[in-house]
Amino acid sequence: MSLKIIPKEKMGEFVANMMGAYRVVGPRQKEHQFMFGPIENLDQLHLDYNTTILPPKKYLLPQHESLFKFNADTFDAELTIDDQPTVILGVHTCDLHAIQLLDQVFQRDHLDEHYMARRENTILVGIECLEPCDDHSFCKSMGTLTPPTGCYDLHLTDIGDSYAVDVETEKGAWLVVRHAQARDADDEDYKRINNILSEKWPRFPYKLDFDVGELPALMSVSQKSPLWQQLGEICLACGSCTNVCPTCYCFDVRDKVDMSLADGHRERFWDSCQLDEFALVAGGHDFRPSRAARQRHRFFRKGKYQTDAYGLLGCVGCGRCGRACLVEITPVKTFNELYRQRTGGAR
Amino acid sequence: MVSSIYLPEPARILDVQEMTTLEKLYTLEFLGGRPLGHKPGQFVAVSALGIGEAPISISSSPSRSNGTFELCIRKAGDLTGVLHQKKAGDTLGIRGPFGQGFPLKKFQGKDILFAPGGLGLAPARSVINQVLDERGKYGRVTILYGARTPAELLFKDELKEWEKRDDVDLHVTVDQPDDNWTGNAGVITTLFAKVSVYPRNTVAITIGPPVMYRFVLMELLGKGIPETNIWLSLERRMKCGVGKCGHCQINNLYACQSGPSFSYAEIKAVEGAI
């Protein structure tokens, strides 16, 4: 829509102003790492963070959420819809791509009202990454080094003494008009932005040995690769990879009741296809009993199934799963090894 | 008003019939009075609030719905244990119907061979009764049903009715006969030698435990029935019923969305499906 400029010394005011109208969350320090958490004063906000332990997904699909409250005796039920107006500040472009996929998943075919209520009341403020997070990230290979269109409301780029703010939606425009002291970008600003974006590209390495466009096809011919058995032998089935993944959304549902055994709520909570009981049915048949089959399922969701279903990749290259894995199973090593097995490494 | 795809609708139990020591048949009606509007082969999510929710196949046929529907529920865990304590007049939560039913329109004019095993008769009965209520639209109807023991046979009254009909060829077998059993003994595949089919004009519908499919499929393919005419219902852990939660995924297929009924042609190349 338009490009605005907010001087860095005015950012504190911008954030403080929006706090009156919204719950504001953003990247903040947690010991030697970063996490998305509530921002109560500007000192807590670290827009120059590398990566967060969990992706901002948790503000759209929380680890636990009530779907409805009930009384089991009377059968009265009341929906729980969380529509608290929220601003998520400083979302990296990989995580924006992940949210783009979640939007598809929860809107397509059967609309998930719980996700959508949060999503529609959330303002996403992205930030352009100018340095790679660390050795695990491989966003450039996955095509997620720039933000997806039609997903964020505002997108910041650090241009030195100011932030350039790409205003994408009415919601975003309103936030700027109402709460920020911004000016329109001029030719000088465009030049600075162009230079900064050009300079950033060479800093990011390609990590995949092949073009990501080939990934779904590579997966198609890798169903019987011996690699799955090897991963299955070292995988601890701890579920860390799926817990930190920005595109994982599988969940389980359970009822919780209070001491009366009548009043309670039904909640959904994150589940993991890596855990033992994920595909277990009543009667005891487990449809994915081996860790090898479960790892294969995870990588197929990331590399192929989501592309088949939604036209978007199921992996955004954030590197979180590789960072979290205790036995160093990483998507980069996995995808590259599959490619090597098919081609002997030739491009 | 905001609604939710996860909110069950209250339904009253009109009747409970004890079928075996493990299975009960529930007749239900929505409190609001709306019909379920299902197709044979679909399922619902059944809730006991405070305990949980589970997918249960619909056992009644649309042709006999009359505003009510029937679920045959096996006691297999905590939730179904609680469901088994429910009585007529109690309320359960229902979401659905979910999934694709069997494409009965495509089956018209064809001979139908049913091969349900064990609890598989519960969803198969929905199709069988629909076909029998529109008997003229189909060719020969054959039912091969296998259970573990005579005591575990489901829908015994209806088996007797089907037995009596001239236009239904019913064969029943049990794996472990008792002293009073005079019928066929052995697994369901032992029944296939007793029937002959016109393979190109036959649609086979088999529903049963995963272990049964491999052997029944060999019999059906061995009779020359085309892969596109062999239909199965794949059991998975459908949790949400709406293609989100991931539990029922078979490779790229969500059993709750594309299934649970699939033709063998659709799933034969899908590893882990059968």
CATH H-level superfamily of the largest domain in chain B: Nucleotide-binding domain of ferredoxin-NADP reductase (FNR) module
The arrangement of helices and strands of chain A along the chain is EHEEEEEHHEHEEHEHHHHEEHHH
Largest protein-protein interface: A-B, 50 and 41 residues
- Number of discrete helical segments of chain A: 12
Helix content of chain A: 25-40%
Instruction: Outline the low-pLDDT stretches of chain B.
Output: none
Bin the strand percentage of chain A. 15-25%
* Quaternary organisation of the protein chains: heterodimer
Biggest sheet record of chain A: 8 strands, mixed
Query: Structural class given helices, strands, pairing of chain A?
Result: alpha+beta
Which range best describes the helical content of chain B: under 10%, 10-25%, 25-40%, 40-55%, 55-70% or over 70%?
Answer: 10-25%
For the termini of chain B, the CA-CA separation is: 43 Å
Rg on CA atoms of chain A, Å: 22 Å
Molecular shape of chain A: globular
Tally of extended strands of chain A?
Answer: 12
Put the structure in a nutshell:
The complex is a heterodimer of chains A (347) and B (274). With 347 residues, chain A is an alpha+beta fold. Helix content of chain A is 33%, strand content 20%.
Layout of helices and strands, plus pairs?
The complex is a heterodimer of chains A (347) and B (274).
Chain A: E1 2-7, H1 11-19, E2 23-30, E3 33-38, E4 64-71, E5 77-79, E6 86-91, H2 93-107, H3 113-120, E7 122-127, H4 139-142, E8 154-158, E9 162-167, H5 170-179, E10 183-184, H6 187-200, H7 215-220, H8 227-234, H9 240-243, E11 251-257, E12 263-270, H10 291-310, H11 320-324, H12 331-343
Parallel strand pairs in A: 2-6, 6-7, 7-8
Antiparallel strand pairs in A: 1-9, 1-10, 2-3, 4-5, 4-12, 8-9, 11-12
Chain B: E1 9-18, E2 23-30, E3 43-48, E4 52-57, E5 69-74, H1 78-83, E6 91-98, H2 104-107, E7 111-116, H3 121-133, E8 141-147, H4 156-164, E9 169-174, E10 184-185, E11 202-207, H5 210-222, E12 230-233, E13 249-250, E14 253-254, H6 255-258, E15 261-263, H7 264-267
Parallel strand pairs in B: 7-8, 7-11, 8-9, 9-10, 11-12
Antiparallel strand pairs in B: 1-2, 1-6, 2-5, 3-4, 3-6, 12-15, 13-14
